[in-house]
């Protein structure tokens, strides 16, 4: 009995080590009536948590999904910056205001806020495009409608080494 349980624990641990960590492929999904988006199950495994970071992408005018392991490591680096560095605080506030941390519900859906959906022109069908370490969420056949100063967001992200 103990031997079999030990073998099962070992198998589970091996599967966990083999868990995918790359976000790959292109997936088309529809926002449901409550504007929730179902993230592919393999991606949820690769993201490795109960939540995901989402931020506006100033280069592609879409939204970017960022795994917790990547963003949390970045945040840890940023925490070393002095709290009285006014420029850094301004840049980080701008990045923070254009980002969100979203929890997955039991069905693997996230609810992106309306302002971010509008920025990327997301309604109805959306395309999730894997980018190995992060992914984008783009409108299918729709032009983005944005009010965010993407140049300022890009500058903030460059200055803060995102």
What does this structure look like?
The chain has 162 residues and is an alpha+beta fold. 38% of the residues lie in helices and 24% in strands. The chain is built from 6 helices and 8 strands, in the order H-E-E-H-E-E-H-H-E-E-H-E-E-H. It starts with a helix and ends with a helix.
Coarse structural class? alpha+beta
* Average residue pLDDT: 85
Q: Which spans have pLDDT < 50 for at least 5 consecutive residues?
A: none
**Individual helix count:** 6
Major sheet size, sense and barrel closure: 6 strands, antiparallel
Query: Looking across the biggest beta sheet, what order are the strands in?
Result: 1-7-8-4-3-5
β-strand percent reads 15-25%
Shape: globular
Distance from first to last alpha carbon? 50 Å
Helix content: 25-40%
Features:
alpha+beta, 6-stranded antiparallel sheet
Helix-strand blueprint:
Layout: H1 2-17, E1 26-30, E2 36-38, H2 41-47, E3 51-57, E4 62-66, H3 68-78, H4 86-97, E5 99-103, E6 109-111, H5 114-119, E7 125-130, E8 135-139, H6 150-159
Antiparallel strand pairs: 1-7, 2-6, 3-4, 3-5, 4-8, 7-8
Helix pairs in contact: 4-6
Structure summarized in a few sentences:
This protein has 162 residues and is α+β, with helices and mostly antiparallel strands. The protein has helices at residues 2-17, 41-47, 68-78, 86-97, 114-119, 150-159; strands at residues 26-30, 36-38, 51-57, 62-66, 99-103, 109-111, 125-130, 135-139.
């Amino acid at each position: 009995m103990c031997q079999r349980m030990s073998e099962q624990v070992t198998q589970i641990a091996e599967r966990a080590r083999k868990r995918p960590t790359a976000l790959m492929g292109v997936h088309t999904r529809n926002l449901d009536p409550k504007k929730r988006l179902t993230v592919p199950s393999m991606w949820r495994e690769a993201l490795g948590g109960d939540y995901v970071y989402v931020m506006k992408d100033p280069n592609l005018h879409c939204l970017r999904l960022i795994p917790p392991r990547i963003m949390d490591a970045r945040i840890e680096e940023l925490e070393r910056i002095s709290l009285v560095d006014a420029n850094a605080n301004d840049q980080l506030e701008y990045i923070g205001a254009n980002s969100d941390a979203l929890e997955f519900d039991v069905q693997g859906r996230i609810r992106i806020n309306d302002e971010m959906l509008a920025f990327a022109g997301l309604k109805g069908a959306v395309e999730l495009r894997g980018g190995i370490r992060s992914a984008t969420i783009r409108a299918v056949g729709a032009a983005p409608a944005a009010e965010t100063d993407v140049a300022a967001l890009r500058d903030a992200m460059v200055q803060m080494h995102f």
